[in-house]
Amino acid sequence: MENNSFKNSKILLVEDEETLAVGLEYNLTDEGYIVDCAKDGKQALNFFESKVYDLIILDIMLPYFDGYEIAEKVRAKSPQMPILMLTARTTAEDKVRGLEAGADDYLTKPFNLQELLLRVKGMLKRKMWYQSFTELPALYQFGNKKIDFANLNCTSGSKKFALTQREAMVLKYLIERKGQIVSRKELLENVWHLNPEIETRTVDNFIARLRKYFEPDPNNPVYIKSIRSAGYSFVDEK
């Protein structure tokens, strides 16, 4: 086992495929993590309600409650909880639905074990340095939108909601570079810590969600603008 600075982090693994669950539990434990394994949605929620975790690895297809339902329930109680969703479904709609339910990231089955371990380590790292991620004040306001980056609570007019940790990080990154063009490659490298050469619509999906939250008309954005063939730019005309 290589040196892991996140040793003893507590992980809730939710997977009903016994062979996969046993293998993942063994390898995560071998990395130094403390793992609870739930075989269905009901058991997963019981674990979540009774214990404190640093990260959740969550399959979609589960008995009783599926991964989407569990992610929504976790998000309602713990907006900053990192969730890595495992899915056998490869369509863009399924992945978007998982991200909208509250997942921070996803892996499509079958996946490479080392990639999963790297994602887990990266998500735990982000959880630890989230509070010092930015020089922005905890409260940021533009238009009639207000974001509390300390607890991820937001208001947009009369609407109140909470961002996920990853949504907040993407938004922070754009706001800190207000008026500048930020490429998808830059976001993948610096927010997701992923190889920017991989083919993924993840960045675009997160931008679409942020527009849905904050734009008066998400199809004609005034704050989070697309720069053709270059990336995105946050505009705040204060």
Query: How many separate structural domains?
Result: 2
**Helix-strand sequence:** EHEHEHEHEHEEEEHHHEE
Count the helices. How many?
8
What is the terminal separation in angstroms? 52 Å
Provide the gyration radius in Å.
18 Å
Share of residues in helices = 25-40%
Largest sheet, in brief, is: 5 strands, parallel
Summarize the model shown.
The chain contains 8 helices and 11 strands. The chain is an alpha/beta fold. Helix 1 links the parallel strand 1 and strand 2 (34-38).
Walk me through what this model shows.
Helix content is 40%, strand content 20%. It contains eight helices and eleven strands. It folds into two domains: 10-129, Response regulator (Rossmann fold); 139-234, Orthogonal Bundle (Arc Repressor Mutant, subunit A). The termini are far apart. Strand 3, helix 3 and strand 4 (83-87) form a beta-alpha-beta unit. The protein has 238 residues and is of the alpha/beta class. The strands form three sheets. A five-stranded parallel sheet has the order 2-1-3-4-5, sandwiched between helices. The protein has a four-stranded antiparallel sheet with strand order 6-7-8-9, with no helix packed on it. Strands 10-11 form a two-stranded antiparallel ribbon.
